[in-house]
Design brief:
The chain is built from twelve helices and 19 strands. By secondary structure, it is α+β, with helices and mostly antiparallel strands. It is globular.
């Protein structure tokens, strides 16, 4: 079995609703506070409380800045936006004056003050870079000059950093989503009066299926669009799964007819062969210092690439080169292409979308004389067709015990086979 997170965005999505839903589904608030580290401690406090939305119990994630300001409720349909990020509607400027407008450099410094793992910090930075690229493209200014008005305030930074930690904490093998209900009408922002969805939200929703239920409010915020499209590998109805728990993240307003919530379903996949859409990005490089390739691979994986690999190729003028291939979720294509352009010497990246089949997977742990080792199990129609020890576990134990890695692998394989024969 593989672990699945499914986001049901029937009433939109925002950063605080994502976190509220994940807390409601089991993420410990104390673990979240620990991960935020001094990012939250120095500037704000976070909490979660149970509320009712159209009779449905949900968790409201609350950020309170130490200057006494809470996240402002918005118009008639709000989530968390005040000036930076609407709560199902942007707030008027009169309630937004106290929020800082930060550059990407300033935001990166704040992220580095969190207690996220280095990989998670890189992921959070890449998410904000994607936001910056969207704003830069819309306003036709260099990304270095971007100050994030809508998503530069501390509470929105906490939403994104917290969500990165939450996704890591759940250890889901697959994250998927319903189409997103974006709402309708007009919205006020730092840059003027715009139709819903706002320009930055449209840019971030590229590749994701959207619709409007006719509600005249902004249901998907820029932060909500960023998080859902950066993590979801596919979109559609609830996948074949066994639901372990459900979480509901509340928006600000309690609407009379529709629960103002985002729902997340957490469970295990069935043993059926699953298919998903992925995008393949490629380019050839023949003029770059080979020392840089390893760093490029690390950056791509930190940004969420599914696979990254290199192959030697012969290019024009009989020059040896390297083919860089990236497998990724469709919503991540632009972000990963930007990394390739920034970190390599290529001047072009081609891409195409493909369908891949994946076996159902699960992780089991076996005990060896060297320590515990995780085993990855793959099933086809309920039958185990592949089983292998996690190499990183074997490497860690081998280094600690000063023994060959192959000895730890052999011990793990024997322990796994012994456990199967005893069933």
């Amino acid at each position: 079995m593989s672990r699945i997170l499914y986001f049901d965005c029937f009433n939109g999505a925002s950063g605080d609703m994502v976190l509220g839903a994940l807390i409601d589904a089991g993420l410990p608030i104390d673990e979240l506070r620990r991960a935020l580290g001094s990012l939250a401690i120095d500037g704000a406090s976070v909490s979660a409380t149970k509320v009712l939305r159209a009779g449905v119990s949900a968790t409201k994630f609350i950020v309170e800045e130490h200057n006494g300001h809470q996240r402002e409720p918005q118009h008639d349909h709000g989530h968390e936006h005040h000036h930076h990020e609407q709560s199902h509607a942007h707030a008027p400027a009169a309630v937004a004056h106290h929020h800082a407008h930060r550059s990407l450099t300033e935001i990166n410094r704040l992220i580095e003050r969190s207690a996220l793992s280095p990989v998670a910090q890189d992921r959070a930075k890449d998410l904000f870079h994607r936001l910056g690229e969207a704003e830069a493209a819309i306003h036709q200014i260099p990304i270095e000059r971007i100050h994030l008005h809508e998503v530069g305030a501390l509470d929105s930074i906490i939403d994104i950093v917290g969500a990165v930690f939450a996704m890591e904490w759940f250890e889901a093998d697959t994250i998927t989503s319903s189409p997103l209900n974006v709402g309708g009408g007009m919205v006020n922002s730092a840059h003027g009066h715009f139709p819903v969805p706002a320009p930055a939200t449209v840019k971030l929703l590229g590749g994701a299926p959207v619709y409007s239920s006719g509600v005249q409010s902004e249901l998907v915020t820029p932060t909500g669009a960023l998080l859902i499209t950066s993590y979801a590998t596919s979109y559609g109805p609830v996948p074949a799964m066994t639901i372990d728990r459900a979480g509901y993240g509340a928006g600000d307003r309690d609407l009379p007819n529709t629960p103002n919530v985002l729902r997340v379903l957490v469970g295990e996949s069935s043993d059926q062969l699953g298919t998903e859409q992925i995008v393949v990005l490629e380019c050839e490089i023949d003029d770059m210092n080979p020392q840089l390739f390893g760093f490029v691979m690390d950056r791509l994986y930190a940004a969420g690439a599914l696979e990254v690999y290199f192959a030697s190729v012969q290019m024009k003028k009989n020059r040896p080169g390297t083919l860089l291939t990236i497998l990724a979720r469709p919503a991540q294509r632009q972000e990963l292409s930007s990394i390739v352009f920034r970190e390599t010497t290529t001047i072009g990246v081609r891409y195409h979308q493909v369908t891949r089949e994946r076996l159902a997977r699960e992780i089991v742990e076996v005990a060896t004389a060297f320590g515990a080792v995780r085993f990855k199990i793959a099933r086809l129609g309920g039958a185990i067709v592949n089983a292998s020890p996690e190499f990183e576990d074997c490497l860690r134990l081998a280094s600690a015990r000063k023994v060959p890695v192959k000895d730890v692998q052999a011990a793990a394989s024997k322990a796994y086979l012994d456990s199967k024969s005893g069933e």
